[in-house]
Amino acid sequence: PDPSISEDLLAAGRKAYDVDREHVFHSWSAQRTITPMTVVKTEGPYVWDGQGHRLIDFSCQLINTNIGHSHPRVVAAIQEQAADIATINPAHVNAARSEAARLVADLTPGDLDHVFFTNAGADAVEHAVRMARVHTGRPKVLSAYRAYHGGTDLAFALTADPRRNPVDKATAGVAHFMPAYPYRSYFHSTTEEEESERALAHLEQTILLEGPQSIAAVILESVPGTAGIYVPPAGYLQGVRELTRKHGILFIADEVMVGFGRTGEWFAVNHWGVEPDLLTFAKGVNSGYVPLGGVAISCAVYETFAETPYPGGLTYSGHPLACAAAVATLNAMQDEGMVTNAARLGEEIIGPRLREIFEAHPSVGDVRGLGAFWAVELVKNRETKEPMAAYGGSSPEMNELVAECKKLGLLPFQNMNRIHVAPPLNAPDEVVRQGLDILDQALAVTDRYVTG
Ligand code: PMP
């Protein structure tokens, strides 16, 4: 245990654990089977577990604490705002929301000049789709398989990962298409160029078969996160932009996970110069210190609701505490150059080290990413690409790898057969290097299960 963690803190953590197991209902879990990790302290790029061990946080929790834990400027802004105006009817102007909206409008690409604030990512997606449906007068929305858009009903229907199946009511107006995923190409492509061309041809076929005149929007994660951080091949997002424009369909870029610097650009669409009609955000907008999400809206969509009311609202649309945290976060990110730092971390440290790790470990099938957003995809066999955990679940092998990382001092983000490397954008270089060294060491665990 870290000597800075007192016995009182550890005792409080043990008590919290017992009460949690008695009363807390956990997301995505078979309640009685889980042994969740207790966190007793967070600071910068670190968290401390229930035994008082310090772990490097390569998960940024759910990839939201982009500026690290407990950033003093953001903490102070929340405290000051709480003492001033803690909460207010969203119909009233509040200074924190006005300034947060101005910053978001300035930072987002194109003419996304108006901002509707929500509580988080899923409701941002719900509202973006509603705007698109009213704007176009069309009912359908297309989303990609291997995507994550949120846990509310419509957002979960758009989320084409297998977890939705038990509750999938085939929500009216949702259809799916295959994504561009070079490592496991659905189109039998052997090059990125081929993958981009074939995935676009498939999307156009889907649009034509569903009927362009019935489709309000195509929603896509600019870089799909939860489902694997698979960076789209060159030309793909531009192609989606052209196709949607050609058919009068809106393009919604879901930047809930990648927005605000994660990939080394303020928004991931900027890597490809693409301007969506609607852009959803959450997480990084205020590093998750207070729940906040939103939709950045183009001028054309804004006009639809300029003289006719928008059918929707939220008690906490632009909550002062959340918006004060956003203003402080975005100012700190700009002042401290965190977005360019994320790009540098990817180019100079994470990318090169992960390529070494790929060379050294037969259980690593692929490494890919941008900025401070990388995936290590684990396989039992590099030839067959048999995943170390089946799609939709974990496996004893992956659980063992995560346990080994934690034992060695790293909190990784694991999903299915992947470890995601997503440190804070301002993590010191030596902390990122240490985390990668730990991952390198821990991968001896999965190497033992390689069969080919
Ligand atoms: N969209 C994307 C791309 C996400 O990554 C997430 C959350 N992981 C969501 C939407 C949903 O956000 P929330 O959990 O804040 O509702």
UniProtKB/TrEMBL annotation:
Keywords: Aminotransferase, Pyridoxal phosphate, Transferase. SUPFAM superfamilies: PLP-dependent transferases. CDD domains: OAT_like. It holds the Pfam family Aminotran_3. One of its GO terms (molecular function) is transaminase activity. It comes from the Bacteria. Coiled coil: none annotated. The keyword Transferase applies. Belongs to the class-III pyridoxal-phosphate-dependent aminotransferase family. PANTHER family: AMINOTRANSFERASE, AMINOTRANSFERASE CLASS-III. This is Aspartate aminotransferase family protein. It comes from Citricoccus alkalitolerans.
